[in-house]
Amino acid sequence: MVFLSTIREEKLAFEVVLEVSDSVSLSTTPDLDFGRLRPGDSGTKYISFRNNFILPVKLSVTASGNVSRWLRFEKESVVPPFSEVKIAIRVVVPANATKGVYRGRIVVRARRCLFGW
């Protein structure tokens, strides 16, 4: 779980790793390591955010790297005051994917709303 600090805007980055293989294995690490998936498979990991402020927080999510085109997620969301949201990061491996290790990065920008976005 990630707690937002008292600054107006904060940027958080998460490494994404996926190996396309003939076999499947799960990852038990707390980051966005999807382990090994076969072509045509998919997997989902979650990032939890808790807003401990009296104001709402807007989250903007972007992806980069060679795995980014396979990632699906909500690009923007609002976390109400004193609430928690979970952002689902889903990877969908194409059926024709080449075996290998794919990497990327998810960046989440959190911005407090003082007088509008």
What does this structure look like?
The chain is mostly beta strands and 117 residues long. The protein has a single domain, classed as Immunoglobulin-like, CATH 2.60.40. The chain is built from no helices and 9 strands. The strands form 2 sheets. The chain has a 5-stranded mixed β-sheet, with no helix packed on it. A 4-stranded mixed β-sheet has the order 1-4-8-6, with no helix packed on it. The model has no long low-confidence stretch (mean pLDDT 85).
Classify the fold: give the CATH topology.
Immunoglobulin-like
User: What is the residue-averaged pLDDT?
Assistant: 85
> Any idea what the CATH architecture is?
Sandwich
Shape: elongated
Mind telling me the CATH class? Answer: Mainly Beta
Uncertain parts: none
Helix content: under 10%
